[in-house]
Amino acid sequence: MSLLINLTDASADLEAYIDSYVAATASLANRYGTFYPSSAPYDQWIQGTNTSDYAAVLDGDFTAYSGGNLTGTADALTFGYGLTTDASGLTSVTNVELTFDFRDLNVNAGPDSFDYLVYGLIAGDASRVYDYFDDAGTIQVGTEADNTLYGYDATDYFYFEDNWGSDTINDFTDGEDYIVFDTSLWTNYADFADDATISGNTIAWDGNTITLAGFSGTLSSADFQFVADPATIA
Predict the structure, then answer these.
(1) Cβ-contact 174, 151 below 8 angstroms
(2) 129-134 contact pairs (CB < 8 A, 24+)
(3) What are phi and psi of 102, to 5 degrees?
(4) pLDDT of the residue at 183
(5) Distance between CA atoms of residues 66 and 116, nearest Å
(6) What's this model's pTM, rounded to 2 decimal places?
(7) CA 78 from centroid of its chain's CA atoms
(8) What is the rounded distance in angstroms from the CA atom of residue 184 to the CA atom of residue 228?
(9) Nearest residue to 2 (alpha-carbon basis) of 212, 176, 211
(10) In whole angstroms, what separates CA 35 from the centre of its chain?
């Protein structure tokens, strides 16, 4: 199942944000994180503190943790700063800057790239995060800011809604990756082609652009999808 990534203006450049977060982990209070509850089964793994520059909360239904391997299901990993704990004891990120939605992913196998993603956050190794993207594939949902998005080894989907801004996609792979538009914009390629323009590696519509950096192929209908909800893509 592809990883659904929801950006915010703070993480408009996806890799720049991840690199910044990981670079800061060495000095984070609670760098190694804590589980809630304190014994299995766990609902959360929490990194950082309420006053640290960054914090992250991994939500799921985890039956055990042993030898670097979490088992159970993973729901979402939320990044930002500030932590809020509710009356039930569950913690959330107060100021959300980036979300990885695993969508109830079964993580019983392992240790695998999911476990190494978490390890990468602890060890300050961003390559572990990108290895997971390579394995799982991504669905990247940007904002109205000018986003910088990235392609990886598996299939990647880049999802755009109205007023997406001037966005850049790095490492777009023709025949593998897809540009996806919300159906509130267009419902099929014919409607899109009547409305927008494609010039080389750039798509333009109503003041918005998508530039495929370094792309020298030819975009065709096969490179596009039109869906109402990014969670239904893959």
Answers:
(1) no
(2) 129/18, 129/22, 130/15, 130/18, 132/3, 133/3
(3) -85, -15
(4) 99
(5) 13
(6) 0.97
(7) 10
(8) 7
(9) 176
(10) 22
Taking only the tens place, the pLDDT of each residue in 192-203 is 999 999 999 999
The beta strands (E) that lie in 164-218 are given as 166-170, 178-182, 197-199, 202-205, 208-213
Q: What is the mean pLDDT of the chain?
A: 97
What residue ranges define each of the domains in the chain, with the CATH number in brackets?
3-136 (3.30.1500.10), 139-232 (no CATH)
Q: Cβ(180)–Cβ(224) under 8 Å?
A: yes
User: Cis omega before residue 37 (within 30°)?
Assistant: yes
Contact assessment for residue 104 and residue 73, using Cβ atoms and an 8 Å cutoff: yes
The mean pLDDT value for 69-93 works out to 97
Token pair 């993973």 is at which residue?
A: 74
Burial of 105 (0-12, 13-18, 19+ CB in 10 A): middle
**C-beta separation of 199 from 218 below 8 A:** no
SS3 category, 182: strand
What pLDDT does residue 67 have? 86
CA distance 116 to 129: 8
Q: What is the DSSP string of 101-145?
A: EEEEEE--S-S-HHHHHHHHHHHT-HHHHHHHHHHH-EEEE--SS
186 is written with which tokens? 């267009």
Q: CB-based contacts of 183: which residues, under 8 Å, 6+ apart?
A: 226, 227, 228
Show the tokens assigned to 129. 């995060």
**Exposed, middle or buried, 62 (CB in 10 Å: 0-12/13-18/19+)?**
buried
Contact 56, 121 (CB under 8 A): yes
